[in-house]
Amino acid sequence: MFRRNAPVNRTILVALRGICVSMLLALLAASVATSQTNPVRASAASTRARHVNAPKEPGAPAATREDLEKLREMITSQSAEDQRRIDELQQENQRLVEQLKVAEQQLAHASEQIEQMHAEQVQQITSVESAVTALKKAEADTTVAVQQEQKAQQDAANPASLRYRGITLTPGGYFAAEGLYRSHAENADINTSWASIPYEAQSMSYLGEFRATARATRLSLRADGALGRATATGYFETDFLASGFGASEVQTNGYSNRVRQMWGRAQFPGGWTIAAGQMWSLLTTNRVGIENLSEMTPALIDATVLPGFDYARQTALRVTRRFDANKMAVACSAENAATVGVTPANVPSSVSGNISGLSATGTGIMSNTTYSTNVAPDLIAKLAFDPGFGHFEIRVIGRTFRDRINATATAPGKNNTITGGAIGGAAYVPVWTNKINYLAQASWGAIGRYGATSTDVVVKPDGSLSVEKSIHGISGFDTHPSSRLDWYAYASAEYLPRDYGYGLKTIDNTKCFVETGFSCSASLRNLQEASTGIWYRFYKGPSGTLQYGANYIYVVKNTWVGVKGAPRGVDDILETSFRYYIP
User: Fold this and answer.
1) Based on the domain organization, do 38 and 182 belong to the same domain?
2) Share of the chain above pLDDT 90, in %
C-alpha cells in the first residue's frame, strides 16, 4: 500500500516543508516591521542586547536590512522552486495514479481471463475424465460380455444341464471309494447301527473290523420346468446301500441300489409350495428355509449320520408357505408312519405271542421286509426363521400307534390305539464370517424311530401300549479354514427313560457279562457319541470336485441297571472316503 502511494507521500512532505518556510518568512517580516516602527526602542534594545550578550572579544557585525531582503528573496525563490517541484510531483502523481488505475483494470481483466481459462480447463479435464470413465466401463462391459460369451460357448460345449422338451435336466451325485475300521466288529457296512454295537462281553467285541466299500456312491437327476405360472421340479436320488439278495464279499460285491429320494414339487407365486414323494422328513433340520434340498446333515462319512440327529427319508405330502421375503416359512406334512415296539421281559409269553400289528412280515417281493400295521400318517409341522444371522426352527409331530390282542378261545380280540407327540427345535448359526458354523438340535417326546435308539412304544404286561418319550440332542461345529479344507466336530446323545417293564431293575443281566453262553436283554438307556473329521478338496472346477475325507467316531452304549449290573458297549470307528462329485 505504501509503495503504491509513494508519490503522494513525497507531495505531502514537500508541502509541509513549504508551510514551514512560509511561517519562517512571516516571522522575519514581522520582526523587520517592528524594528522600523520604533527605531529608538529597537536601537535601545539592540544596544542593551549588545551590552548584555556581546562577547568580550570582538564579534561579527549585526544583520542589515539588505541582508534580510536578500534572505527573503532567496527564501521566496526557494519557495517558488519548491512550489514548482510540488506541481511537477502532483502532475507525476496524477499520471502514476492514472497508470495505476489502468494497471488495475488490466489486472482485473487478466484475472477474469485466467478464471475463464481455468474454468475451461476444468471443464475440459472433467470431459476427458468422463470420456476415460466411459471408455473403462465400455472396456469392462466388453470384457464381461466376452467372458459371458466364452462361458456360454463352454457351457454349450460342456453343459452342466441338458434341455429336453422344455425341461432342464441336471445330473448330480458322486462316485465313492470308502473304508472303515471298527475296534469292535458289527459286520456292517459304512452305515453303522449305533444301537447294535456289541457289548463288552460279546465275542464280536473282541474282534476288530476292516471294510472297503463303494456302496455309498450316489447318483441323482433333477428336472426343472415351467408349469404355467408355477415352477415344477422333479428329483431322483439313489445309492447302493440296499439289503440286496445274493450280495457277498467272496468274489463280487454286488449290491442292489435303493431309492433315497424321489419326489415332485410345484412352487407357486406368492410363496406357496406343494411337494409329494419320498423325501427327507420335515423333522430334518434345514440350513435355510424349509424347501426340499436345503437339508442340513452332519458332514460325517457314515451313512447313518449320528445318534441324536432326527431324520427319516419317507413318502410324504408337504405344503409350505414363505413369508416376509423368505425370512419366515411354515410347513406341514403328512408322512408315512411306522412303529418300533419293545416287549420287556416282564410281559408274559402268552401275551407277547398273541399280539399283532407292531411287526408284520411283508408279502410278495417284500416278504423279507418287516412292517408295522399303521393306523394314520405321522403329522409334522415346522416354523422356520432366517433373520439374516442364522437359521432357527421349531417343529412338532403327532403320531398314532396301534396293536391288537388277538382273540382266544376264552377272550375276544381287542385293538389298542394311543397317540403321542414330540416337540423339537434346531439352530444353524454362522459364528464367524461363515468360517465357523454352529449346529444345535434337540427333541423330546415320541420321537423314537427318527433317531438311533428307535423305540416308539413299550408293550405293557396286559398287551396294551405305552409311548416311550425319548430325548435326542446334538451340538457341534463345522468350520471352513480355507476354500479347500473343511473341519467339523460333533457331540450327541439319545436317552430312553424307564417305562413300565422297560429298564426293569429286576431283569437278569447275569449273562450279559460272560462270553460263554452270552445272552443279554438289558434295556438300552442312552447312546453317547463324539466325532471329528475333515474334508479336503484336491480340485474343484468345471470338471467337478475331487475330495478326500476322514473322520473318527467314539460311541458308548449304556443300559439300565438290572441284576448283576448294567452292561455297556464301546466302539472306536475310523472312516475314510475318496469321492469324485459330478459337476
Assistant:
1) no
2) 57
Within this chain, do residues 92 and 201 fall inside the same structural domain, yes or no?
no
Residue 480: phi and psi, rounded to 5, are -135, 75
Give φ, ψ of 439 to 5 degrees: -120, 130
pLDDT tens digits, 224-266: 999 888 999 999 999 999 876 667 788 888 888 899 999 999 9
β-pairing, 457-459 vs 341-342, is parallel
pLDDT, tens only, 86-143: 888 888 888 888 888 888 888 889 888 898 888 888 888 988 888 889 888 888 888 8
Number of domains in the chain: 2
CB 523 within 8 A of CB 559: yes
52: left (phi over 0), alpha (psi -120 to 50) or beta: alpha
343 touches 352 (CB < 8 A): yes
Using alpha carbons, list the distances in angstroms from residue 501 to 138, 239, 457, 505, 569: 80, 39, 12, 9, 22
Cell numbers for 431, please give them.
459364528
Structural contact between residues 355 and 463, judged by C-beta atoms closer than 8 angstroms: yes
- pLDDT > 80? residue 414: yes
Asked if 425 and 395 count as a contact pair (C-beta separation under 8 A), the reply is yes
φ and ψ of 344, to 5 deg: -65, 170
Identify the three-state secondary structure at position 550: strand
> What element of type H or E holds 214?
none
Q: Is residue 145 part of a domain?
A: no
Do residues 10 and 103 both lie within one domain? yes
Q: Residue 370 sits in which domain range?
A: 174-581
Write the CATH number for 296.
2.40.160.10
Supply the mean pLDDT for the chain: 87
Q: What is the mean pLDDT of residues 360-365?
A: 68
Is residue 119 in some structural domain? yes
- φ, ψ of residue 284 to 5 degrees: the values are -70, 135
Q: Are residues 256 and 109 in the same domain?
A: no
pLDDT of residue 581: 97
In this structure, the answer to whether residues 478 and 558 fall within a common structural domain is: yes
pLDDT at 153: 67
Task: Determine contact, residues 410/430, Cβ cutoff 8 Å.
Answer: no
Look up residue 250 and give its DSSP letter: S
368 and 502 belong to one structural domain: yes
- Is 242 among the domain residues? yes
* Sequence-separated (6 or more) residues with CB below 8 Å from residue 454: 195, 340, 448
Torsion of CA 160, 386, 271, 261, to 10 degrees: 50
Q: For residues 177 and 163, what is the distance between their CA atoms, to the nearest angstrom?
A: 31
Q: Are residues 467 and 573 in the same domain?
A: yes
* DSSP bridge pairs for 473: 442, 493
Q: How are beta strands 391-405 and 378-385 bridged, if at all?
A: antiparallel
What are the residues facing 479 on neighbouring strands? Answer: 436, 487
Kindly state whether residues 90 and 220 are assigned to the same domain.
no
Q: Which residues contact 139 (CB under 8 A, 6 or more apart)?
A: none
Q: Residue 330 falls within a domain, yes or no?
A: yes
